[in-house]
Amino acid sequence: MGVTGLKVAAIPLRMAQALMLRRAILASIPALALLPKSAQADDFNTFLARLRARALARGIPQSIIDATTAGLVPNSDVLQLDKHQPEFTLTWAQYRSRVLNATRVAQGKAKAQTSANLLAAVTSQYGVDSGPLLGIWGIETNYGTTQGDFGVIDALTTLAWDRNSSFFGGQVISAMRIVANGDAPAQKLIGSYAGAMGQPQFMPSVYLSTAISFTGSGQPDAGAPDIWNSDADTLASMANYLLKAGWQSGQPSSELVLAPGNINLTSTGRENVQTIAYWLQQGVHRLPGAPDLPAITPAALLLPDGAGGQAFLIYANFHAIRRYNASDYYALAVGALGRLALQT
């Protein structure tokens, strides 16, 4: 996902989600952070020996290291996908027409209905509203239907070698730790070619720090989080991620507004935070059904396609979503999909 601000993709705040927007557009799989290509310092076997030693030093049992790395060779499919990532520069109008398509919206509405009780339980437990959860779930994996089909340890090891990347090597070790902890066998660790796993597309380190096993009872579940097959664990884990990212309960992330054509563009953008009252004084109009917020609520005005295009007031929770994927387009689409899915 490789550009900032108003482009399709942005340089990530966490490398784990670096190319999510291309996956959203192409119904594909997440890609990588911006790192040099073909930067191998060693032949693969030498690299693998060093990685195995690093894992052992990090406390991974030798038996797990042997079992998860036996017979590994560079995965040619991973290398091809990584080296042939298409570049896009779409407008927000083009992006939303692809990501917020009728099929995905209909799926979101269906999930909102069939998962209503579960969503209510997750919201009660974590304070994260249903809308952004439905939005992320839909954009990440089409509600769990497009999770990727790569062995995570295989893919991550290939990338760690090809990019001479300590980050991806660390993710291999995190994946080994998942196996060593008994959370999941290696063959269950399936995801994208970049190593993002399951319905929420978590990297292994994020799984270890953030994934939740959720029963909806308000009590911890002793089982390991199953983000591949369990909707409950998936939604709770995404909610826990947003909560850690600073989600403010009951607050929106963004809202569509009308902005005057002569608005001072230098005052717009997510870093130019004012208040709702300030923007109303500048001629911004909120639409019927807008969330009931105090006039002193901090807000920024975002015009993703510039003057004449759609305009949004964005709030603190917008930045929490951008922690999941550092793109304005992504955060706007998550908010929009969530709102559409919850419309009756």
List its traits.
single chain, 344 residues, alpha+beta, Helicase, Ruva Protein, domain 3, five-stranded antiparallel sheet, two-stranded antiparallel sheet, 7 strands
Strand order of the largest sheet: 4-6-7-3-5
| Structure annotation, total helices | 15
| Inertia-based shape | globular
CATH domain class of the domain at 44-82 and 147-244: Mainly Alpha
Q: What structural category characterises the helix and strand content?
A: alpha+beta
- Distance from N terminus to C terminus (CA atoms, Å) equals 33 Å
Average of the residue pLDDT scores: 88
* Topology pattern, helix = H, strand = E: HHHHHHHHEHHEHHEEHEEEHH
Annotated CATH architecture of the domain at 44-82 and 147-244: Orthogonal Bundle
Number of strands: 7
Beta-strand content estimate: 5-15%
Give the radius of gyration. Answer: 21 Å
Give the uncertain stretches in residue-range form.
1-37
- Under CATH, the topology of the domain at 44-82 and 147-244 can be stated as Helicase, Ruva Protein, domain 3
Identify the CATH homologous superfamily of the domain at 44-82 and 147-244.
Bacterial muramidase
Major sheet: 5 strands, antiparallel
> What share of residues is helical?
40-55%
